[in-house]
Amino acid sequence: QVQLGESGGGLVQAGDSLRLSCEASVRTFSNYAMAWFRQAPGEEREFVAGVSWSGGITRYADSVKGRFTISRDNAKNTVYLQMNSLEPEDTAVYYCAARPLGLATTQAVRVGDYAYWGQGTQVTVSS
C-alpha cells in the first residue's frame, strides 16, 4: 500500500516560515492525489491544502490561502507544504494524506476522502 512519513515540523515564532515534507513509499506516486490536514488540541482534523497527481491543480482552506503553498515532486515521491507568515492559530499536528485518483482535487477536502495517512508532525507557533 502507501506509507507516508512527514518531517519539517518545529517550534517557530509568529511571522516565521516552515516547510513540511512528506515522503511516500509507493510504487507509483503519481497515481495518488495528496493533501495536508491539521489537528489542533481538542479540535477535529481539518483540511489545509490538496494537490492533484501532476501538481497542476491545488486547493487551499480559506484560513491558509495566500500564506501556504502545496507542491509535489513525483520524481522524489514527496509532497511539500511551504508555510509562510505563520500565526499562533496554525499550531497543530500536520498530517500528510493520500488517495487514489478519482475525486476532483477541488472537492477532496474531507478526512474520509483520503485512504492513507502519515503519523503527523507537530508545528507550534509562538506569539
Class based on secondary structure composition and strand pairing: mainly beta
Major sheet description:
7 strands, mixed
Q: Helix segment count?
A: 0
N-to-C terminal Cα separation, in Å? 40 Å
The chain-level mean pLDDT equals 96
User: Low-confidence runs (pLDDT<50, min 5 residues)?
Assistant: none
Shape assignment: globular
Helix content: under 10%
Order of helices and strands: EEEEEEEEEEE
Report the portion of residues in β strands: over 45%
What is the tally of beta strands?
Answer: 11
Alpha-carbon Rg, integer: 13 Å
How would you portray this structure in words?
- With about 130 residues, this protein is mainly beta.
- Helix content is about 0%, strand content about 50%.
- The chain contains no helices and eleven strands.
- It has strands at about 5, 10-15, 20-25, 30-40, 45-50, 60, 70-75, 80-85, 90-100, 115, 120-125.
- Strands 2, 4, 5, 6, 9, 10 and 11 form a seven-stranded mixed β-sheet that branches.
- A hairpin with a 4-residue loop joins strand 7 and strand 8 (about 80-85).
- It is globular and about 40 Å long.
- The model has no long low-confidence stretch (mean pLDDT about 95).
